[in-house]
Amino acid sequence: MSDKNAIVHGPLTCSIDISADPIDAGTDFTVMARGSCPQGCDLRGHRVSIRNSDDTEVVRTEFASVDGDSHITGPCVLRAPRTLGRHVYRAVLVAQEKDGILHEESSAEFSFTTLAHAAHVNAWGMPSAIAAGEPFRFTVGVKCSAGCKLSGRPLSIVDHQGAQVGIAELRDDVWPGTEALYFAEVEATAPQATGGHQWQVNTPECSEGLPHAAGSCHVAIKIVSLPDHEVTVEAFDSATREPVKGAYVRLHPFQAFTDAQGTAKVKVARGRYTLYVSGFNYMPHEQIVDVVEDVSFQAELTVEPEEIEDYR
Length: 312
Known about the structure:
The chain has no helices and 28 strands. The chain is mainly β. The chain folds into 3 domains: 7-115, Sandwich (Immunoglobulin-like), CATH 2.60.40; 119-224, Immunoglobulin-like; 229-301, Immunoglobulin-like (Sandwich). Strands 2, 4, 7, 8 and 9 form a 5-stranded antiparallel β-sheet that branches. The chain has a 5-stranded mixed β-sheet with strand order 3-13-10-5-6, with no helix packed on it. A 5-stranded mixed β-sheet has the order 15-21-20-17-18, with no helix packed on it.
């Protein structure tokens, strides 16, 4: 019961600090209320009621400390609505009498917007070059902005002409070393037209459970003529004449690595190439080669000179 002789102070001022806006629908966020009395009263212990759009109290807290000219509550965790759009909540400073001073009820509105969860799509493991008409594989990963489980979510692969050329579903497990990156191995067949093409990986929106937006990413693919010749490259140490294992061999865009005998076999299409061979601690070897039939080349690799430190 209020004391009729109580002195009335007010109105109190109030504002809300919100951790994020917009917010993924159905996820947690935090708010912190700030309040002050124009007469400079100590409001610690004064009750604050946070109410949703239906004026239903979702959390009750109180001012616990002072921050400059304001009293503040601790962070309060709220759950955002699942429905999308703008939501208006209220912070109500409950009427309270203390030490003969009455602070009447006051309130302040605050709003935020909820969005469908974003789907971050990425692709990797694409071959550097794909022969026309040949099947190939790559990996697609999708991560929800809120870290939701995405297993079973469908993927579609669309080519440069807008035709669907592949489908897949995200697996139940996540990519090793990540917390919520769900992935799928995708299979497709290269087009007959050679050159560079821009494909797209799509995943549709989903309204079941928490709303998720559609997502996509572009994938660049390079189509080359069907290889018709084999190039054999033998890499060896120029000083010891020993074969160099694991040397990188490139006849762009084709590539391979040498085996234990220092040999790499690369299938290429007829044409002129720059043969590039490099190995760990070796200086790269380059030469221009013309491939009109199956052919062999030797790559003599020289050890990189040691750096001499100048102690002067």
